[in-house]
Specification:
Two copies of one chain form a homodimer. By secondary structure, the first copy, chain A, is an alpha/beta fold. The first copy, chain A, contains eleven helices and ten strands. Chain A is globular, with a radius of gyration of 18 Å.
């Protein structure tokens, strides 16, 4: 329920201490999908998180085959969601797009389809109503995902994204939505970057674990100053102030046995050699997360 | 307890609908203190929020006399706090500085001394411990403030400031600290900009009101994209997505009868004529807050 243990990377010398490490492809965005597959295999990393746009550009079935051939587990597909529109046509279009995302997650055998809820529509000041629309949209999407064996994972984003990206701001809110469904159908994402500041996160992680709701555990570090737009300000593991090990221990104590997915949006990392970045991620993971 | 009603501006034609409006001097940072006093009197604004640095530069007693002569109520003095240091000498220096801030607030007859807690010390990853140090520091400062008739007001800042500016991120956390003291000694700041995203804010505002803890109510709007460093990204009232009227009604329903202080850090406003900005603030206040 709390995510399957990632398979060992086939045909690699995966060190035991990297067995749970998953690398989200945005961390090494400079790599194509084949480079990612090759680079992870070479580094002994057996799991990846993928994004829809590069997967679609490469071809969904082709990407799925590539991952299978390299023995890579796809721990998450980012992302569905963005269904806070009030306009009925926009809402219907968003649900159509989410069904396509479910199909892609199914083709990839992804552990979860990550849902980022979307922000407030232009000119809207009613965040409570927007949150209700998210719950409604998940209800509309859930049967389609269930029929295709895809688990939905609601991701709370940091409150600094509440207006323009994700009105679901805390793990408690995500669980309130998820718990209307069986745990194997709708879980949550615990992302250290988004939740580190929240004094209720430990209790909500325990709640999520009790219910078998932790579909993904993601890590990045919090560094300041935040850049303009704030999206690309995530730090390499260990460069910031997040107690990554403490949060990893908390999800473990809650019963999670799945992957630890490193998802860092950082142009500084993208400007470097991908293999060098991946090696650094592995080293930081050992030092600050394990 | 919930802040006194601001006095009507003496010698002005203060329209009744601006009776609660207070203008924080950072909103019209281009103005000197005499310009602020003159401009507010001319615009029928009877209350201001002041900052320590410009007050000290002008002279504390002199500033107090200026405000008295113009019949201006000082609703808040920003700011004390920044007492999360672990180092004993740094901590002692912070407390010394806070006692000076209390003295200044007393001289100005300020309705409250706003406390911004401070962030995590360099290299520190234990935010729970930093929050405990804030509670300890308030305990150390409270008797000094009480003896001088100064009310302390703990301000929760948006979680995007948790690492570098304020580990107190929610109204609930601020109340947990304040409630160890009598309400007339330690209250809280309810700032719409910092709390708008929080689904628990309505319940915490009600809690704050029941306890007579609302020492200040501040407003600014949330606009995106956030600028680099995020501090100076606040929007003019009505330019963003905050339900300012709803929050004002919530503090009113909780029993608050004090000022509505407009505190907007925005270089775009600072580049304009101060009187024009103040007139716009008054107009937006009528349209979006009243």
């Amino acid at each position: 329920m709390n995510g399957g243990a990632p398979r060992a990377a086939a045909g690699t010398d995966a060190a035991g201490d990297l067995a749970r490490l998953s690398v989200n492809q945005e961390t090494v965005k400079q790599w194509s999908l084949p480079e990612l597959a090759e680079g992870c295999a070479a580094a002994g990393v057996g799991s990846v998180g993928l994004w829809r746009a590069p997967v679609r550009a490469y071809g969904v079935e082709r990407a799925a085959r590539l991952m299978r051939e390299r023995g890579l587990t796809v721990t998450s597909l980012c992302r569905g969601g963005f269904f806070t529109a009030r306009d009925p046509e926009e809402r219907a279009a968003a649900l159509d797009d989410n069904r396509a995302a479910v199909d892609e997650a199914a083709a990839l055998g992804a552990g979860a389809l990550v849902l980022v809820s979307g922000g407030l529509p232009e000119g809207d000041r009613d965040i409570a109503a927007a949150r209700r629309r998210v719950a409604d949209a998940v209800r509309d999407l859930a049967p389609y995902a269930r029929a295709r064996g895809v688990r939905l994972a609601i991701e709370p984003l940091h409150p600094m994204f509440a207006s323009d990206r994700c009105v679901v701001s805390t793990l408690g809110q995500a669980l309130d939505i998820a718990e209307a469904f069986p745990a194997e159908q709708v879980g949550v994402v615990v992302d250290a970057y988004h939740l580190w500041w929240d004094d209720r996160a430990p209790a909500q992680i325990a709640r999520a674990g009790r219910g078998g709701r932790i579909a993904c555990f993601q890590v990045a570090d919090w560094v300041t100053p935040l850049p303009k737009g704030v999206l690309l300000g995530r730090g390499q593991l260990g460069d910031g102030c997040v107690d990554l090990r403490g949060l990893r221990e908390a999800v473990d104590a809650a019963g999670y046995r799945g992957a630890v997915e490193v998802e860092i949006f950082n142009p500084g990392l993208w400007a470097r050699d991908g293999a060098e970045v991946l090696a650094e991620v592995a080293e930081r993971y050992r030092r600050h997360v394990l």
